[in-house]
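Researcher: Let's run the pair from yesterday's discussion. Sequence first, then tokens, for each.
Model: Starting with the first of the pair.
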Amino acid sequence: MHAWHVDRPGPAETRKFELREEPAPRPGPGELLVRVRACGVCRTDLHVVEGDLPVHRPGVVPGHEVVGEVIELGAGVAGFAGGDRVGIAWLRSTCGVCRYCRRGAENLCPYSTYTGWDADGGYADFATVPAAYAHRLPEGYSDAELAPLLCAGIIGYRALQRSALPPGGRLGIYGFGASAHLAAQVALAQGAEVHVLTRDPRARRLALDLGAASAAGAAAPPPEPLDAAILFAPVGDLVPPALAALDRGGTLAVAGIHLTDIPSLNYQEHLFQERQLRSVTANTRQDAHEFLTFAGEHRLQVVTTPYSLDRADAALADLANDRVHGAAVLITG
């Protein structure tokens, strides 16, 4: 098979990120072997390749928005059959017994592992996944459309929950890429009024086309105070203006796994009147189930830019330079 490996993370001019030919993996006990048909290109992959995240598995194959076909079952697997279309997402395993797992917060499990970081992911022709962490996928979507749902969609959904948006409330979205354009559609379907703040003119047009009430520059004040906001752009400088845009009691949820440094905050301007700042850490399988069920019941418009597997480096470069419209997706099958 063909697979991309991050042999030396770093900036484009110094990193070693190579496409190699090698034997396909075999499923271990409790695992599925999946022929990859599409894999989304997530900003977290960029953080892995560029070294923003510490190395967990040397030479790892990135990619955690994987849509594929089951071709082999490991020992002890039940509930799946060859030919099933399944999804592989970021969360790969948890311990199941720690206090976080027991209370339903498996995303905080200190022993959790992640696809494309701790284990090889979907920038390849084949991938494995523990069957307990494989996802059933909704009908009515192409492989390319499904891929971004498996992280961008799920994380956007969790970020929306963390933002504590009240029914019919006003939501601000900072940055409008793969995750944001899906979270916005969920919020709109739930009756929210959505205001988008992003530097990309194409993204602002997409936001308005999807039904946003307004779209302006990333640091611009929204037309009215916000009940909740989500920061998708990994830019700490946007935290103060996003907090200042909140109405009394509003919440800002930061959706990314990586964020540049946050400038000093002024208590009276940014936090007083019970404004809240929250982070988002991974997701639970319940989050994934709820979001994928929602996607099956509400046809989401998934905007994608396709790349062949051998152009994964170009896809990451385009993502880093804001040249991707919607979500970048590698097409392998």
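Model: Moving on to the second of the pair.
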Amino acid sequence: MAKIEIYTTPTCPYCHAAKSLLADKGVDYTEISALDPDVREAMTERAHGRRTVPQIFIDDAHVGGYDDMAALDRRGGLDPLLAR
């Protein structure tokens, strides 16, 4: 199973949608709170300058935000990444 990490904040609707999509897929993920400025900065560096949440990583590869992950799923590309 792939290692999934998602940077979130508590009130972000896109974060909730991303977590729901992953839950629907039946995969475990690690949620990282991006409220701490140091964590947010580390996320931004890791996400190639993107500061918005969620930022999603699968096996250390940057997938992007919720819209990116949902589009990847619609194209049939998400399940193969999750199954690694």
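Researcher: Give me one sentence on the second I can quote.
Model: The chain has one domain: 4-82.
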